[in-house]
Amino acid sequence: MKKGELVLLISRENSYLTNVRNEKMHTQDGIFNLGELLNKNFGDEIKTHLNKKFTIAKPNITDILEKRVKRLPQVITPKDIGLIISYTGIGPGSLVVDAGTGSGFLAIFLANSIKPGRVVTYEKDKRFLKVAKENIRASGLSKFIKLKKKDITKGIDEKNVDVVTLDMKDAEKVVKHAYNALKPGGYLVVYSPYIEQVISVTKEVEKKNFFDIKTVENIVREWQVEKHTRPKTVGLMHTGFLTFARKVG
Ligand SMILES: C[S@@+](CC[C@H](N)C(=O)[O-])C[C@H]1O[C@@H](n2cnc3c(N)ncnc32)[C@H](O)[C@@H]1O
User: Fold this and answer.
1) Distance from the CA of 171 to the center of ligand 1, in angstroms?
2) Whole-number pLDDT of residue 104
3) pLDDT for the residue 72
4) Which of 120, 130, 152, 177 is the Cys-Cys partner for 99 at CB 3.0 to 4.6 Å?
């Protein structure tokens, strides 16, 4: 294992994301001597000073986003990102325009799916730009994400875009720019916390040559599987609505 390499240390109870380095890491499971990782491979075990065993695994993008990325309020959740990726069919090589960047959570997840393609993400607020920049660097996906300081209601510079994702106030003002930027068959996806925004976005979408216009809500209910198995009483009840529209030409 190389110095600086990102690793996930996992046991049945806990997991820790860290870099390989000549330092000690204090945790509730005891102290890890991270220098020991230099002589190990993925799949090997490492013990804390309390003799607790952890397996060394390669972290995936979800581990990195959960444990490394600073979340400002209102990031898009993985359940909704899953639908964006599967409904639009983006994949390696796609070009995506995203706004607003916020913490960069959606942009990072999308970049992981479309690399070696590009996500160009627009943010107009300096405070968010700073956090997003740090998060993009921490994700290791900087090569595939271009962060632009720009108000997207003023226009989209890119052409021949596969997907435009909007998670911002006044998304309806961007519909015409998204239409011009998209390639035929490309998708506009708008994430709206409130149904009022869904209605104003749909009105704008209907003025343009889009087809397959639909709004969905993705409800995920976790179950507790125990002696008595039933849905968990507490959960994330509402995140947002996703409106999809596909450009004809
Ligand atoms: C809810 S957050 C986006 C969260 C992001 N999707 C994520 O997963 O981290 C909305 C962001 O849109 C930005 N924004 C709002 N209007 C904008 C505009 N006209 N152009 C660019 N960014 C805008 C806000 O500053 C804010 O950072």
Assistant:
1) 10
2) 95
3) 79
4) 152
AA identity, residue 132: A
- How many Cβ atoms from other residues are within 10 Å of residue 187's Cβ? 24
Q: Is 167 in the pocket of ligand 1 (CB under 6 A)?
A: yes
pLDDT band for 71, please (50, 70, 90 cuts).
confident
Q: Show the DSSP H helices in the chain as ranges.
A: 61-67, 78-88, 105-114, 126-139, 175-181, 195-207
* Tokens read off for 221: 């209910």
Domains parsed from the chain with CATH numbers:
6-59 (3.10.330.20), 64-247 (3.40.50.150)
- As beta bridge partners, residue 191 has 242
pLDDT confidence tier of residue 106, bands split at 50, 70 and 90: very high
99 lines ligand 1 (CB under 6 A): yes
The pick from 125, 163, 239 for probing ligand 1's pocket by mutation, whose C-beta has the most ligand atoms within 8 angstroms, reads 125
Measured in whole angstroms, how far is the alpha carbon of residue 5 from the centre of its chain?
Answer: 22
The count of other CB atoms within 10 Å of the CB of residue 117 is: 17
Q: Are 41 and 56 in contact (CB under 8 A)?
A: yes
CA distances from 33 to 7, 26, 49, 74, 169 (A): 13, 9, 8, 36, 47
DSSP letter at 247 equals E
Please give the average per-residue pLDDT across 211-222, as a whole number: 96
* 35: pLDDT strictly greater than 80: yes
| pLDDT of 237 | 84
Q: Find the helix or strand (DSSP H, E) in which 8 lies.
A: strand 6-10
